[in-house]
Design brief:
The structure holds two protein chains of two kinds. By secondary structure, chain A is of the alpha/beta class. Helix content of chain A is about 35%, strand content about 25%. Chain A has one domain: 3-Layer(aba) Sandwich (Rossmann fold), CATH 3.40.50. Chain A contains eleven helices and twelve strands. Helix content of chain B is about 30%, strand content about 25%. Classes of the chains: A alpha/beta, B alpha/beta.
């Protein structure tokens, strides 16, 4: 298979002004700090981590929605990171995003057909009205919206349906890459399952590559082929889905998996585990050495002295931990 | 039909035929409809349901914090006292004192302009008549109990100086200050990361053992329910569709909605990649509830009578109640 997306040592840093008038020294927030991965056509990479680990910034960096500090992004063999804004805009039709809050990501003053047709107006202005309407109706049907809903406004829909509209808008241009930033975390359980099934179906139909960002490892398990775990802007572990859940090697991955409550009282009550203590350290002031060491049950002196490097412990299984 | 309590002793909380309705421009909306249940001393009742199922309005009804267009009917007895129709002055003595509350979003529930010390001591000074110094001492002890490191110094900080998980701990500490008999937690861990959620759930279990209070835990996460509840109540369209002890509910779910919910959760302990079972359709609009069962449009096992008649909540085995017409079939 060909690599559709390749991200190489991507860094997104933000300058944060210093506190107080007399201390104008700025600090650097390393939201994404040296992430590399690639994505095949038709493959889904799940990205997990706690809030503040940089997973959304990574998505926005890839799309060029936040300026990239260094590193390179290749989409279908073409380097994106240093394209001009204008040239980049043209490439965006190949990469689309679905956001977390379904209602907030739709313009309340536009009808469903206007929302879904807008990308077509921008990228395919040569289409006439009839063709455009035809395309909008086609994609609406594909995502499970009824034809008679075409002239309604977002507020008339429930959360799950709004998310379908967001997905339709992202897919109407037939992109090669779809980035989903927590697309189901705002939805009810029964609706969440509908949307996950829809995304899985569509991916197979359209041979889409997907970056699926979530904080819920069980949702990611359902939909991904490979999974990458992030902590404080860095990758801590990445491997195939089955391997990650069968044999998690990084203590943070293990802690994340253990923390998920299992909907079975017998299993849930006999589970012996110690939840991870403490909170994510401030990304403005990360710990020395391994950034996870402040919460790590295995931390030793070497962890404070030296940051672990990414190592491939078996084929395609990357871990950055001194003990893996 | 009043719900007969399980033990001869008076339950801590007894709700009978509760109806919560709202006057709206589009007509009368029943958010909670004919609900009867009880909570024993030391028991944890888990309440599950989707948005719009009435679970949050149920909580607000119990502590009488409904919006101004809301109306209560039926009976809520807490330690033998009737809460429906109680004067605000009297209920203020119970709320925050005998009944503690934890809400979903700790940032919007804490006052950002006041230090944590000011907000916590206020509770004790109001309800227990303590002076500031001893109230502060109690508050610090409570912050220690919820494992806030360096509580002595942290208490003088403002809410924004705490992380999300820490704020939720402050909320829990605040709710427990007066050692309430009943703690109502409305989605306390939904806004938190899984690792922090695990900490908070562990903390609540620990505190319950220590203080022996009853808990009503509202959540949509069946995993959380499995870990913490003794009894589970599943709500749909403002009514109870199933209620059972936790092991019974997970082992032997009888209502199609409960079954659907259990099957639509992606699980870590099963192989992924197969299609998830999903419940088709959307939650019902409370303004236009069908005359029969509210779940009928999404139910795959529906029979003709479901469209016409509201199913009766009946006991199919001791402590297991289901409202489904299928249970009435011979």
């Amino acid at each position: 298979m060909t690599k559709l997306l390749r991200v190489d040592d991507l860094k997104v840093h933000f300058r944060i002004p210093g506190e107080g008038l007399l201390r104008p020294r700025h600090k650097t927030l390393r939201a994404v700090d040296g992430i590399s991965f690639d994505l095949d056509a038709g493959e889904t990479l799940g990205i997990v981590g706690e809030s503040g680990c940089g997973k959304s910034t990574l998505a926005r960096g890839i799309l060029g929605l936040v300026p990239v500090t260094s590193g390179s992004i290749w989409l279908a063999g073409e380097e994106l990171a240093h394209l001009s804004a204008r040239a980049l805009r043209k490439r965006r039709q190949h990469m689309q995003i679905v956001f977390q809050d379904p209602l907030a990501s739709l313009d309340p003053r536009m009808t469903v057909s206007e929302i879904i047709a807008e990308p077509l107006q921008v990228f395919e202005p040569s289409l006439d009205k009839k063709e455009r309407k035809h395309k909008v109706q086609g994609i609406m049907e594909r995502v499970g919206l009824l034809p008679n809903q075409i002239n309604r406004y977002p507020h008339e829909f429930s959360g799950g349906q709004c998310q379908r509209i967001g997905i339709a808008r992202a897919l109407v241009l037939k992109p090669k890459l779809l980035i989903c930033d927590e697309p189901v975390s705002a939805l009810d359980v029964s609706i969440q399952a509908q949307i996950i099934n829809l995304l899985m179906d569509i991916q197979e139909d359209m041979q889409l590559s997907m970056l699926f960002i979530a904080h819920d490892l069980s949702v990611v398990k359902q939909i991904s082929h490979r999974v990458m775990v992030m902590y404080l802007g860095k990758m801590v572990e990445a491997t195939t889905r089955d391997e990650l859940y069968r044999d998690p090697r990084h203590p943070y991955t293990r802690a994340l998996i253990d923390a998920i409550p299992i909907p079975d009282p017998t299993i849930e009550r006999n589970k012996k585990f110690e939840p991870l203590q403490g909170d994510l350290p401030s990304p403005l002031d990360p710990p020395s050495g391994c950034s996870f060491r402040t919460r790590c049950p295995m931390a030793a002196d070497s962890c404070a002295a030296e940051a672990p490097t990414q190592r491939e412990i078996s084929e395609g299984h990357w871990v950055s931990c001194h003990f893996a | 039909m009043p719900w007969i309590p399980k033990t001869a002793d008076m339950p801590l909380l007894e709700v009978n035929n509760l109806r919560t309705s709202f006057h709206t421009n589009d007509g009368e909306v029943y958010a909670v409809n004919d609900l009867s249940f009880s909570v024993e001393k030391g028991e944890t009742l888990g309440v599950v349901g989707e948005s719009g199922s009435g679970k949050s309005q149920l909580v607000l009804s119990i502590i009488n914090l409904l919006a101004s267009n809301g109306q209560l009917q039926g009976s809520i007895r807490f330690q033998g006292q009737e809460l429906v129709g109680m004067k605000p002055k009297e209920i203020n003595r119970i709320r925050g004192n005998r009944i503690g509350m934890i809400f979903q979003d700790p940032m919007t529930c804490l006052n950002g302009y006041l230090t944590v010390a000011r907000q916590m001591t206020e509770v004790l000074m109001h309800h227990q008549g303590l002076d500031y110094a001893s109230a502060k001492k109690c508050s610090i002890e409570m912050l220690d109990a919820v494992h806030i490191p360096d509580a002595k110094n942290r208490i003088d900080r403002y809410p924004h100086e705490f992380s999300g998980g820490m704020r939720q701990r402050v909320m829990i500490a605040m709710a427990l200050l007066c050692q309430p008999d009943l703690l109502i937690a409305d989605e306390p861990s939904t806004a938190l990361d899984v690792t922090v959620q695990a900490q908070i759930i562990q903390l609540m279990n620990e505190l319950q053992q220590e203080f022996g209070m009853s808990i009503i835990m509202i959540t949509h996460d069946l995993g959380v329910i499995a870990g913490i509840s003794d009894n589970v109540m599943v709500m749909y369209g403002g009514r109870i569709c199933e209620q059972a002890p936790v092991f019974e509910l997970f082992d032997n779910p009888r209502h199609p909605y409960t079954l659907g919910l259990l099957q639509s959760v992606p699980r870590l302990d099963t192989a992924g990649s197969a299609k998830l079972h999903s419940i088709p359709g959307n939650p019902p609009n409370l303004l236009r509830l069908p005359p029969g069962c509210a779940f009928v449009d999404r139910c795959q096992k529906g029979i003709p009578v479901c469209d016409q008649k509201q199913p009766r909540l009946r006991e199919i085995s001791p402590e297991h109640r289901v409202a489904c017409h299928l249970e009435e079939l011979p």
